[in-house]
Amino acid sequence: MKTTSFRYDINALRALAVVSVVLFHFFPHDLPGGFVGVDIFFVISGFLMTGIVVKRVREQRFSLLDFYRSRLYRIMPALLVLCLLVFIFGLVFIDPITLKTIGKHSFSSLGFISNYIYNGESGYFSDNSRLNWFLHTWSLSVEWQFYCVYPLLILLGYRLGGEQKLKIVLALTLLLSLALAVYQGLMGGRHAFFLLEYRAWELILGGSIFFFKSPESSAASRFQLLGLACIGLSIFWFSEQLMWPSYYALLPTLGTAFIIYAANSQSWLMNNSVVHKLGLWSYSIYLWHWPIVVGLDYFGLNHGMYIIVGLVGSVLLGALSYYMVESKISMSKQPKSNGLKRLLINKLVLSTGVVAAVGLAAFKMNGFMFRFDDTTESVVNSVKASPNRNRCTSSDTSYIEPQEGCTFNLSSENYAILGDSHSIELSQALANELKGNEVGLRQYSYSACGPEYGKSAPQTLCAKWTNAAVENIANDETISHVVVIYRMSSHLFGSHSPYYPDLGDQFSEEHRDSVITSFKEMVDYLVANGKAVTLVAPVPELGESVKLVIKRGFVEDGQINPMKIGTSRSYYDGRNIYFLNILKQSTFNRREINQILPSDYFCDANYCYVIKNKKSLYFDDDHMSMHGAGIIAKQIIKKIQH
To answer: Beta partners for 479?
Structure first.
């Protein structure tokens, strides 16, 4: 296959990829599958990298260090400028919590590990992603990780027996990666979206096209049209509701492969001035469009003409970046690396290290908090989750046996805490309060898992875990007291966020009866086995995350108020009246059972607060911060010792 002349068809694919991604981010409902543009980029990259490496290996002039250096100079300059300018902008206009995150994410982006960082934070399509200024750099991290290992895989194939063995090695790797992606899709594992092992097949699929001879010109147009049809169908038919990449990604990636295979650069679709320019600018447009999308959201300008201005601005900044950065640095003739030292010690690498270090410092220093007043510092410092949030919590995708959960200062007498993700911060806070009492704590937490005690087949992982956890607590003679906390409002009526400030109801009365029956049987069983029980009622849910509250305070008022309303007391009462009435029943008002109402401490007669006395009670829109959990933990100890 010819790869020496300029491939206008590949440049047109770049244009199509970046246009689909950009339009998806600016108009997600109008182009629901536009995110497949990233998959198109992966196939293109795999094809080009295979051509570069294999041709040079054939000619016995391939240098691993030169390859890494050329890739570094292609990706890094524009990315470095983006990270630097966004950070400077954030330093002037952005609140400290967001700047702290910007610092962390700029560091991870420049270190090409952002895909792993984001995989541990939130999904690509989640609401929180709209607050991540560098979310789009996950794909650059995947590409760089691929660049690091792919030449080694090619060299291994040649070492095993020439190009035929190489094709077998690539085919097996492709099939293994695709199988992993499909398996994760079938299992509902959304973390496959960000990680190389589930994406490698897309890049290798592009690479495999290099080994095929292009079709005759009469067939080339048909392959090209077939490829465009596959991509077009993906863009307009797919949506973020699908498990991705899984087998769905075969449609746009095969479509891209068909177009590359056709090698038809003569058609007007592939070779016109508009498409050509967009293709040339595609990398820089991709880099700049997402911070603009996030910025519009951040400042409340994500509507009307502002979106059009943002869209045009993405293209203009992309063009400027191309001519001022890419053309002058990335694509300029670079001298050979002349060894590992020259690869690692040069102006680009040193500049990257400085910017990354500043980002890391911003993260470590809470968004350079010294710039702000005492109230702001107090509020921001209190927006903290448990340091053990991820380590101690079971979930459907990260199952932990109940007996293997976290423990704190175990002694001859211990307490246990049982519940969903709302138990995590309370566990840490309660353990802190118990330190001086010679009482330990066992944590039993399962994220998004409601009371499913006593449920038999078909049994969910949640029900299996709950039954095992309750048995584990009941049979542990050192446990004298059990604290039970669930987000019962959500388990009984569903998430509040789609309906707020209205009261939504996503479940049936039959479902609610089942939840309450399980809850009662669980508490009865614990009491029957000699355990004292403290029931913690639901925490007030907010209309938006505390981070958005802080952000809006900066945007609108330029400051954070020491007292900030989170929601109305009437909303909390209406949302929770069903369960609060259940708690008034005689079965929950026995000598062995205590009750704690967080609303007594987070609310007054009219309002429930998100910030109270210069401290945040939350770290998001419904989970207590460590400060908020500390308030409840103190009340639990008082109740037990009373």
So the answer is: 414
β-pair type (440-445, 532-536): unpaired
**Ramachandran assignment for 600, one of left (phi > 0), alpha (psi -120 to 50 degrees), beta (any other):** alpha
Sheet holding 532-536, edge to edge: 407-408, 440-445, 414-419, 479-485, 532-536, 593-596
What backbone phi and psi angles, to 5 degrees, belong to 616?
Answer: -85, 130
Pairing of strands 440-445, 564-568: unpaired
**Cα–Cα distance for residue pair 580/596, rounded to 1 Å:** 11
Cα dist from 43 to 254, 256, 330, whole Å: 9, 7, 21
pTM comes to 0.80
Residues of each domain in the chain carrying CATH 3.40.50.1110: 402-540+569-603+625-641
User: pLDDT digits over 529-577, tens only?
Assistant: 999 999 999 999 998 888 888 887 777 776 677 888 899 999 999 999 9
Q: Is residue 342 within a helix (H) or strand (E), and if so which, with residue range?
A: helix 340-344
Q: What is the mean pLDDT of residues 591-619?
A: 95
Q: Residue 334: is it exposed, middle or buried by C-beta count within 10 angstroms (0-12/13-18/19+)?
A: middle
Pick the CATH number of 402-540+569-603+625-641 from 3.30.420.10, 3.40.50.720, 3.30.750.210, 3.40.50.1110: 3.40.50.1110
- Rounded Cα distance, 547 and 534, in Å: 31
Q: Positive or negative CA dihedral for 351, 357, 358, 363?
A: positive
